[in-house]
């Protein structure tokens, strides 16, 4: 291969499902690059990545692990992304600033479907990516079936770059399909160059032919050579691979073992020669090459001692310590290696660094000296799917809880919080139960704050089925002026969604006009909690008659009279409980549609229909009406039925009557709680 000129600093994201071995691969890459002198282990808890207490406790990545390294004289930043599906927001943010992604997966065909959401995002955003099939040193691995499973979830064609050398059931090396050189893996050592085994030669030639045909789909000149049986030059093949990867036309596939250091050097060489330059990535993302310095924020961290750190990728010019970005002074520039930061004076195009004290910078923003650089497009955060009601265990922590949640949501845009207007509870929203438990652990570990979490209350309402005319008189005599208010109210139900209506038909001044608003206020006071203990909706009240006293009547007297009339009349109106119903659109692979229908039926849901998902081949969208009381934990059950890939969107649809045993239980619980 012709020697290549040095590249600008580049960045690659390691992405893939939970337990695929990304953190171990990062450790092996850093060790091979010489960035660390000893390779750590996830089991022993001494890796560069997963340094937080939350990650150590769970032995899994719970945040981005960012590490700078140098390979063959070129600077790289590797970003190890959490693989657990509920922590996908970090991975999405990182993917929006890298030059290429390395999708790490296991050689298990049954797990191929778990890659579907990731490949969908990569394909939609046109992010160049390659695949590294990990754990290939395990006996009985099935490469061909694994490739079929991955191809089923990828819009782009997979291009196998090497074929395995087997000794019995064990893969012991590979043959590179471009150079046609064979290598035997050696534990903890560089691979040994060997002759291509005769048993592999025919398979290697067929795989090489398949690779060239895939490349020829995008290059007429190469196609012409193949039709004329002309062997293309090695440099031409590498050029095709690099160009097609840069334009996200193909997905190169490599394999190895991160634990055994097998295939790591081959992966690094492929990245070095084929990954796009940062200038090409900036063009893909719509960043103008000309103009003032700018950088994209992809992660914020509120550290205990250093304040806020904004992790950025520099797209233009140089970012220096002390310069002003978006009206704020940069207080420190750090090159990351896991939790450690090496202080540097400046960072140039392509580098990933942490900038200190940019309190106004948010994920997706593009800080610059003028503050006028367009941030361009940035994917919206993932929609919330699971909630917990949270409160500080210690009353003294109540004030700082909201501030701490604000910092967590700044770090992770898929976290959100707010008070429910109906129940008054403080709700923490996220992608699932584990996502929120990690957030609660962060509150404890960082802010020394113990949080009580519980299932959110359902904001039930109540209404009436019958009408009534009710008379009520409020009369109170004491020393001096007394209180007197007399009203006649007609109470009647409204159609669902009608809300509340108040009117009057007073004639002859039976109730002076100045007191009529007070009657309405009294009615509204009562509607806050009706006969069953819940807010009352869809009711119309008309003030038809009344009496007043020239001395003792007042606004307060008529307000109390209005509330009294409601309190005495509403039990006669056949009150009924209303529960909120959500419109839910469930997205699942077609093979799981029948399971989801059973799941919905078991949660008192009504299936409106299902159809193929228009923009996702092989997936269905099931439209469902589901009570809010049955929504809690839906995402947990849905993922357990669909290998973790099912998801849904939801919105409030309407209120629906609830009667029978379930209604009695709800009312009894409300009575007990009050």
Structure write-up:
By secondary structure, the chain is of the alpha+beta class. It has five domains: 10-172 and 248-283, 3-Layer(aba) Sandwich (Rossmann fold), CATH 3.40.50.300; 295-379, Translation factors (Elongation Factor Tu (Ef-tu), domain 3), CATH 2.40.30; 386-454, Elongation Factor G (Translational Gtpase), domain 3 (Alpha-Beta Plaits, 2-Layer Sandwich), CATH 3.30.70; 462-573, Ribosomal Protein S5, domain 2 (2-Layer Sandwich), CATH 3.30.230.10; 578-673, Alpha-Beta Plaits (2-Layer Sandwich). It is built from 17 helices and 33 strands. The strands form eight sheets. Strands 2-3-1-4-5-11-6 form a seven-stranded mixed β-sheet, sandwiched between helices. It has a five-stranded antiparallel β-sheet with strand order 12-13-20-17-18. Strand 31 and strand 32 form a beta hairpin. The radius of gyration is 32 Å and the shape is elongated. The termini are far apart. The model has no long low-confidence stretch (mean pLDDT 95).
Summed up:
By secondary structure, the chain is α+β, with helices and mostly antiparallel strands. It is 28% helix and 31% strand.
């Amino acid at each position: 291969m012709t020697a290549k000129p040095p590249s600008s600093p580049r960045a690659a994201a390691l992405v893939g499902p939970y337990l695929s071995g990304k953190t171990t691969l990062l450790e092996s890459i850093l060790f091979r690059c010489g960035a660390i002198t000893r390779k750590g282990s996830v089991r022993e808890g001494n890796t560069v990545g997963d340094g937080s207490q939350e990650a150590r406790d769970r032995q899994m990545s719970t945040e981005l692990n960012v590490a700078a390294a140098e390979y063959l004289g070129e600077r790289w930043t590797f970003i190890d992304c959490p693989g657990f599906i509920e922590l996908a927001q970090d991975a999405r943010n990182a993917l929006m600033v890298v030059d290429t992604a390395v999708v790490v997966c296991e050689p298990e065909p049954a797990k191929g479907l778990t890659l579907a959401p990731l490949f969908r995002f990569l394909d939609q955003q046109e992010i160049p990516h390659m695949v590294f099939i990990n754990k290939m040193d395990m006996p009985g691995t099935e490469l061909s079936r694994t490739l079929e499973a991955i191809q089923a979830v990828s819009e782009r064609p997979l291009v196998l770059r090497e074929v395995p050398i087997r000794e019995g059931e064990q893969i012991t090396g590979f043959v590179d399909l471009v150079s046609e050189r064979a290598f035997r893996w050696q534990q903890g050592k560089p691979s040994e160059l060997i002759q291509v085994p005769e048993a592999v030669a025919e398979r290697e030639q067929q795989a090489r032919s398949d690779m060239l045909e895939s490349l020829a789909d995008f290059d007429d000149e190469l196609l012409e050579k193949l039709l004329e049986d002309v062997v293309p030059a090695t440099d031409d093949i590498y050029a095709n691979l690099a160009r097609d990867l840069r334009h996200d036309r193909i997905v190169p596939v490599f394999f190895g073992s991160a634990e055994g250091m097998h295939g790591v050097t081959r992966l690094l060489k492929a990245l070095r020669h084929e990954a796009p330059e940062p200038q090409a990535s900036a063009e893909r993302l719509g960043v103008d090459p000309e103009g003032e310095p700018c950088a994209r924020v992809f992660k914020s961290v509120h550290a205990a001692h250093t304040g806020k750190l904004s992790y950025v990728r520099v797209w233009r010019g140089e970012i220096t310590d002390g310069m002003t970005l978006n009206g704020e002074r940069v207080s420190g520039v750090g090159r990351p290696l896991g939790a450690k930061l090496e202080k540097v004076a400046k960072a140039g195009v392509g580098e990933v660094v942490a900038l200190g004290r940019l309190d106004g910078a948010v994920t997706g923003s593009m800080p610059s000296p003028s503050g006028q650089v367009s941030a361009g497009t940035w994917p919206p955060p993932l929609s919330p799917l699971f909630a917990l009601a949270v409160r500080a265990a210690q009353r003294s922590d109540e004030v700082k809880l909201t501030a701490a949640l604000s910092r967590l949501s700044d770090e992770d845009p898929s976290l959100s919080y707010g008070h429910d207007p109906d129940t008054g509870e403080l709700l923490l929203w996220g992608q699932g139960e584990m996502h929120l438990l990690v957030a609660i652990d962060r509150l404890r570990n960082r802010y020394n704050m113990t949080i009580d979490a519980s299932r959110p209350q359902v904001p039930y309402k109540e209404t009436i089925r019958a009408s009534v005319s009710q008379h009520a008189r409020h009369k109170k005599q004491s020393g001096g002026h007394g209180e007197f208010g007399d009203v006649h109210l007609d109470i009647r139900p409204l159609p669902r969604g009608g809300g509340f209506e108040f009117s009057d038909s007073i004639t002859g001044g039976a109730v002076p006009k100045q007191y009529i608003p007070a009657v309405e206020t009294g009615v509204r006071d009562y509607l806050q909690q009706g006969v069953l203990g819940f807010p009352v909706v869809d009711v119309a009240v008309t003030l038809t008659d009344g009496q007043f006293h020239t001395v003792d009547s007042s606004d307060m007297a008529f307000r109390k009279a209005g509330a009294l009339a409601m309190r005495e009349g509403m039990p006669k109106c056949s009150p009924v409980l209303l529960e909120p119903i959500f419109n839910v659109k469930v997205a699942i692979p077609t093979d799981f549609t029948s399971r989801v229908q059973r799941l919905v039926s078991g949660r008192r849901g009504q299936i409106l229909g299902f159809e193929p998902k228009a923009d996702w081949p092989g997936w269905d969208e099931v439209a469902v009406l589901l009570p809010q009381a049955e929504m809690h934990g839906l995402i947990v059950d849905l993922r357990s039925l669909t290998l973790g890939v099912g998801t849904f969107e939801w919105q409030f649809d309407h209120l629906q009557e609830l009667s029978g045993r379930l209604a009695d239980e709800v009312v009894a619980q409300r009575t007990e709680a009050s």
